[in-house]
Amino acid sequence: MYLIELQELVKSYGAVNALNGLSLKVPKGSLYGLLGPNGSGKTTTLRILCTLLAPDSGQVTVAGLDALKAPQLVRRELGYVAQEVAIDKILTGRELLHLQGDLYHLPSMKRDVRIAELIKRLDMKTWIDRRCGSYSGGMRRRLDLATGLLHQPQLLILDEPTVGLDIESRSAIWNLLREVKSQGTTVLLSSHYLEEVEALADQIAIIDGGCVIAQGTPEDLKSQLGGDRVTLRVREFSDAEEAEKVRELLTNVDGVRQVVINRVQGFSLNLVVDDENVLSSLREELDKSNFQVFALSHSRPSLDDVYLQATGRTLMDAELEVAGQRDVKLEKKKAMR
Amino acid sequence: MTTSTSLVSTPAPKGIEVSFLVQETRALTRRLFIQLVRRPSTLIAGILQPLIWLVLFGALFSNAPVGLLPGGMSYGRFLGAGVIVFTAFSGALNAGLPVMFDREFGFLNRLLVAPLSSRSSIVFASVIYMTSISLLQSIVIMATAFLLGYGWPGPAGLLLVLLTLLVLVFAVTALSLGLAFALPGHIELIAVIFVVNLPLLFASTALAPISFMPAWLGWLAAINPLTFAIEPIRAAYSGPIDLSLVILNAPYGDVTGYGCLGILIVLTIGLFFLIRPLLNRKLA
Q: Which end of chain A is more exposed for a tag (fewer CB within 10 A), N or C?
């Protein structure tokens, strides 16, 4: 049972193609993470879902409703927490919640009860009657979450919910999202933080270049990738020559699939192996050839490995690559209605 | 598909739709008034400015020969109607600015994501807000004019003043909101306001009657919507009201009070229909 079904979404801003046939299915009740570098199309996808933006082509179904034909009905079903927190600096937090409640047509009794609940749950009591202009980033985000949850939507959509937040605010928001999910709300969030998606999401889709390039549970994605990861150092700071020797030596060990020299990390070696039993063979082989083992660590594949496998680059590389190319001002202009 | 789907797929009955519209419009209007109370400088300036106009302009032409103006009116009394209309007009012309800032800061998206029963409530809220401000300003202007000895329109006249302003403010607010959605940013909107504002004042009968003007300016003044608002208000100031009397001697012929109001209403409706597709497109 899917709450959201996106089919073949295409959207371009002038010459820039933001989405190139993106398809996605989000199961009801899941906490779904969209993972991708900046500029991969996450925000555009979420804006289309929220009925703020119409795709050039494709289909959008939310809770069985066609979002392009009946946007108003879809709006009732979702809470949206945008990336750029838009609050009115002159209003107090409580007044903003009040406004929000009226925009969603809550009866006044229910509205006030919900506001009181959220103030308590999000621990906003001490500052909720101050003007929003005086709030810190963490306070603003909490208030924005409260506005998204006020009308108890069956779908909560968050665009980069913890970007730029301190660790404490971040973990408070993570806990809240887990709680919201446990109460039956479907949560869809975008993030370019691997650890955020890893910590929260029970389903993920990796987005790159306006397409979904992999989707499933984090466990499935990792095990599809197969093999364990081993990082090896024979000395604290090795050199190219030595690393190459070790690489040749280990490539032929049974159970080793791949050996890559990581120049950035002091010529350490990154290996993909069948399982952890291979570790002892590695030690033996190194011992025979009189190499020391300065450090040897072993791990299951991470989401970053999944990303690397799917796109041929790490998430961080992708971030750096797009960082110089984006015209943030232009994007903001495009987002204006 | 699911039970929750069937619940929301049914459109709400008409009565609920109307109460939803009232609820959201009230909330949006409330926001504008909270802003006004906490940032009163625009209101204070908006009240002071017309008073300065009234006092300075009234003094500037106070030595104009008696009998020059129609009906032997003093210049101060003549000017009052012009200042009232101009104040309401320039206030309403600025109504699009808060909406433009909401667009630029992304607050509008918050409204557009919400299941508003009609996005006209955004327009209604601005109109209600602007109308209240204009009425407040006009009453202060009228009281000041009275204290300066420029007269008082009386109850029926007051009603006529309010009705005329209502129509004008509605039209200009709609125009300004249309601009706020059509133009790319607040710089452009402010530029348009600057270009439109004063020329429309000078090319109207606010400061001088048509008989004072060269023919070409007289023509402009006689088709200027502000003129059709100014003349009924001026008539309200000059004694018992009879809207069937001629109150405007335009180059194309005489216009009665009913004529002026009729033209103003037709212009307003026309403007509203002109702007509506734009609002619909931006707010659909």
A: N
Let me know if residue B1 belongs to a domain.
no
Residue of chain B whose alpha carbon sits nearest to that of A96: B31
- The correct answer on CATH 3.30.70.100 for the domain covering A227-300 is yes
Contacts A83 to B, Cβ<8 Å: none
DSSP-assigned beta bridge partners for residue B37: none
Q: Mind listing the pLDDT tens digit for each residue in A11-68?
A: 998 888 899 999 999 999 999 999 888 888 999 999 999 999 999 999 999 999 999 9
B153 in a structural domain: yes
Helix (H) or strand (E) holding A269: strand A268-273
Select from A65, A86, A88 the Cβ nearest to the Cβ of B9: A65
Tell me, yes or no, whether B4 lies in a domain. no
The top-scoring range by mean pLDDT among A7-11, A224-228, A284-288, B11-15 is A7-11
B158 domain-assigned: yes
Q: How confident is the model at residue B5 (pLDDT cuts 50, 70, 90)?
A: very low
Strand ranges across the sheet with A295-299: A256-262, A268-273, A228-233, A295-299
For B172, the domain range is 15-62+69-283
Amino acid (one-letter) located at A156: L
ipTM of the complex: 0.84
Check pLDDT > 60 for residue B3. no
* Domain ranges (residues) in chain A: 2-222+314-335, 227-300
pLDDT tens readout for residues B204-219: 999 989 988 999 999 9
- Spatial strand order in the sheet of A78-81: A78-81, A155-159, A186-191, A31-35, A203-208, A211-216
Q: Is the confidence at residue A316, as pLDDT, over 80?
A: no
The CATH code of domain A2-222+314-335 reads 3.40.50.300
Most A-contacting residue of B10, B23, B99, B181 (CB-CB within 10 A), to test interface: B23
The domain tally of chain B equals 1
Report strand pairing: A268-273 vs A211-216.
Answer: unpaired
| Mean pLDDT confidence for B212-236 | 93
**How many CB atoms are located within 10 Å of the residue B135 CB?**
16
In terms of C-beta distances under 8 Å and separation of at least 24 residues, what long-range contacts does B258-263 make, across chains too?
A: B260/B227, B260/B228, B260/B229, B260/B231, B260/B232, B261/B163, B261/B164, B261/B167, B261/B228, B261/B232, B263/B225, B263/B228
